Each structure stands twice: as structure tokens, then as C-alpha cells.
């Protein structure tokens, strides 16, 4: 049976990560996978996480099963982090959350949940979107279509085109939107655009699915969730897929959540029973460690404050690097306008260079960039910026 299999290409992001590891050029730079890095190029464990882990080691009393929805205190804390404590949906008891193995686990649970609601639903995603979104929904047997989003020409949004396309979406379909720090473009909706999107969702009757993997990496924990909060206030039903990989630096612990907002509390209980049945049929129960760490941090004022500070440090470093990259590239007089890098949010932007130039960066300079020209700005440092800017300028000549 296995001999019938045909080999598949490696994942465009994870394949790059593996190739970078094997490269022995001491000047190599990894701007591929979306992982935060400090000035030394390391992805350290946050101090708040270390303290929470020490507490867990001392206080953990059992390794027995955790339950289908995972750690219920974690689920409550995540709802509050995403929606704020006094959001109308929480006061009306309309939200149900399951802890999931990472943001990807959350998206896969959401995909199966959507299929149980409407097996013919199409999931609409931004053009472009995170490389894994499309295969993930298709693997669950859903149809995926795209709507215009990023304006490659003007490095902004194709907002009018986006709205025109979404007006045609049939009721019962799902529209995936990135809450903040759009992956891969870094281009987010502003407050006014969120309102228009929310009103449209209500009018047309599609269900929004908000993917929030970078809360706190853009402007602040609250501001990065404002669009999502406004949307949840406007529509009756919505799905939120969240991740703690980046903002808690818990990548390999695989911790995220899938939240379902229903029209009322009774319907939320029904939706929850379906959500838990989906979980049972995929992985039965989530792992305990990551959720316990997040819950310990969010249950302690001291650890929460420390986490806020560490998150702000990561965000400030990324925003500082955005200015550094823009200034350094502009100083090289390449004839290209890189001011958009400062206007975009989160770890990613498209450099806007072509495939041959991306290949040259990798082959001649050991600079690793995803084939779409997406760069992870956090991979830049004050010690490699000149090497990077010189290399980009040389391939642009
Ligand atoms: C990324 O976009 O690089 C990250 O979300 C990591 C991944 O799994 O692709």
C-alpha cells in the first residue's frame, strides 16, 4: 500500500527552517519561520513562563486526563484576554471555549465544527493568507475560496475589492479574517474597516472566523483585539481561533484555543457539545502543560505584569526593527520605496522582491526568506542589518 505513495514537496515555511539549520555560513540569517528572536538571534523562554513552570513542578498533583475542553480556568482566562472581561457576549454567557493543541489545532477543530454545522460551507480566506490555512481546511473536506486583501502594487489593502467580493458570499459560508498582524502581509484593517466588515457579516449572514495568533505583537493586547471585539458585538455567531505560541513564546508546547460564540446561552451549550465531540474524534484531549502555564501567569497579578512587560519588549523590538530595516534599505538608494515596512504590523512584511532575487539571497548570502518574499522582521538584529541591507541592495541592482 505504501509503495503507491508519491513524495510531496516539503512545507514552504518548515522546509526553509530545516535548510537554514543545515547551512554552515556563519553570516546566515533566518527570516523564514514566524518565531520571535532577540538581538542574539535566540528565542528564549519568557521569565514569566519559567516562574509558572517552576510553580507547576512544585504543585502539580496528578497526570490524570484533563478532559475534552482542557483546562477550564485557562479557557475562561483566554475568553477574557480575547474579548475583555465585560464583553457583552461573555455577560450573556454566549461563549464556549476548548483548549487546543496550538493555533493550528484550533483551526482544525474549527474546520471540523464548521463541517458539522454545514458540510457544504465554503471557507473564504484572504489573498494571500498563511500558507497552511488552505490545506488545513481542504484536509477537513471543506471548499476554500479567496477574497482580495493585500494590494501588492501599493503595499496596502484592496478593501473595496474585498467588500465587493464578500457581498457575494452565500449565507452559511465562513469568512476567515486575521485579527491583527496579518500573516503574511503585516497589513491590518483599521477601526472603520472592521466596522464595515462587521456590518457586512451581519447583513450578508456569513459566519466570521477570526484567527488571532499575534495578540500583543502589533500595538497592544487590547488594541490588537479591538476588531475582533467589535465584530463579536455585532454578529450573532462567530468562531475565534487563538494561539499562545507567539505572545507567550510557548511555540513547542502547542497551546491555543477554539472559542465559539453563539446567539444565546442555550445555543452555546448545544454548540459546545458539538465542539467537544469534534475534539474527542480528533485527539480526545489536549495536553496539559501549556494551558497550565498560561493559566498560572494570568491568575497572578505579578506574573501577568511581568508577561505584559516581556510582551511589550518583544513588540517594541519588532517595531524598532521595522524602522531600522526601512531606513537601512532606503540608505542603499535601491530606487525602491520601503516605507510600507513601518506602516505594517507584527513580524511579517513582503519585501516585494521576485523569486530569482529570493533565490540569490539564499544561495549567495545564506539569507532565508519565504518564496512569497515574506520576511520575519524579528530575524534582523543590529549586528546583521548591514549584511542584510547590502545583500538586498545587491540583488535589486
Ligand atoms: C509562520 O507562519 O511562519 C508560523 O505560523 C509557523 C508555521 O507553522 O508556519
TrEMBL record:
GO biological process: L-phenylalanine biosynthetic process from chorismate via phenylpyruvate
InterPro entries reported for this sequence: Aminotransferase_I/II_large (IPR004839), Asp_trans (IPR000796), NHTrfase_class1_PyrdxlP-BS (IPR004838), PyrdxlP-dep_Trfase (IPR015424), PyrdxlP-dep_Trfase_major (IPR015421), PyrdxlP-dep_Trfase_small (IPR015422)
EC category: transferase
EC numbers, comma separated: 2.6.1.-
GO terms of molecular function: identical protein binding; L-aspartate:2-oxoglutarate aminotransferase activity; L-tyrosine-2-oxoglutarate transaminase activity; pyridoxal phosphate binding
Top-rank taxon: Bacteria
Aminotransferase class I/classII large domain sequence ranges: 27-392
Keywords in alphabetical order: Aminotransferase, Pyridoxal phosphate, Transferase
One of the record's GO cellular component terms: cytosol
Cofactors named for this entry: pyridoxal 5'-phosphate
Pfam families to which the protein is assigned, alphabetical: Aminotran_1_2 (PF00155)
Subunit structure: Homodimer.
Family recorded in the similarity comment: Belongs to the class-I pyridoxal-phosphate-dependent aminotransferase family.
Protein name: Aminotransferase
Organism whose genome encodes this protein: Pseudoalteromonas luteoviolacea H33
